[in-house]
Design goal:
With 201 residues, the chain is an alpha+beta fold. The protein has 6 helices and 10 strands, in the order H-E-E-E-E-H-H-E-H-E-H-E-E-E-E-H. Helix content is 36%, strand content 22%. The strands form 3 sheets. The chain has a 6-stranded mixed β-sheet with strand order 1-10-9-4-5-6. A hairpin with a 5-residue loop joins strand 9 (169-173) and strand 10. The chain is globular.
Length: 201
């Protein structure tokens, strides 16, 4: 091999090495696809509600996990079952070790009909690990306000046959209890999975 060929080869190698190092050092970190919260990230408001077995649930107990929080109701004809089916798919696309570190919480906006048992039965149909929560209207009203949840009962043909208009948003809470990302109704599953994996890293 002559000297010229050697120098050309060495020069090419150094160029490739330099480009590789530059990409590694200056590459833009992966960004979230959902709506992100500004820094400093807001702490998710603490709340205490009731599980299906009658025990108290505190959001703070979820520290160390990533939480997907959704507000809905079991008589919802479309938005809620669609969202829960999406969350089922999201969790199913994670590796088992990651899925164990994700907690899906469903908080009712219809305490008149949604007992803790009824809520848990509802979410359990999508995934037995999902957690359904209810409480008194006074308890829940504080939670709705803390998370900016709009709700309005719309009268039906009978007293029990009403619907509830409500905010349909998935809120993603990181391991430290901070609100990081939110998704509106019918967000692509791949986007939710993408952002969830970023928080699980």
């Amino acid at each position: 091999m002559d000297k010229k060929t050697l120098l050309v080869g060495l020069g090419s190698f150094l160029l490739i090495l330099t480009v590789g190092v530059g990409v590694f050092l200056f590459a833009t970190p992966a960004s979230f696809r959902g709506t992100t919260y500004d820094k400093p990230y807001p702490t998710a408001p603490e709340f205490e509600l009731t599980r299906s077995d009658g025990s108290n649930f505190r959001l703070g107990e979820m520290r160390g996990n990533v939480v997907l929080l959704f507000f809905g109701y079991t008589s919802c004809p479309d938005v809620c079952p669609t969202t829960m089916a999406e969350l089922k798919q999201v969790v199913s696309e994670l590796a088992p070790i990651d899925a164990d570190q994700v907690k899906v919480l469903f908080v009712t906006v219809d305490p008149k009909r949604d007992t803790p048992e009824r809520v848990q039965t509802y979410v359990g149909r999508f995934n037995p690990a999902f957690i359904g929560l209810s409480g008194t209207e006074v308890q829940l009203d504080k939670v709705w306000q803390a998370y900016g949840i709009y709700r309005l009962e719309v009268p039906g043909t009978t007293a029990d046959n009403y619907s509830v208009d409500h905010t349909a948003r998935i809120t993603m809470i990181d391991r430290d209890g901070n609100m990081r990302v939110s998704f509106g109704f019918d967000a692509p599953v791949e986007n939710v999975v993408h952002d969830l994996k970023l928080l699980l890293k």
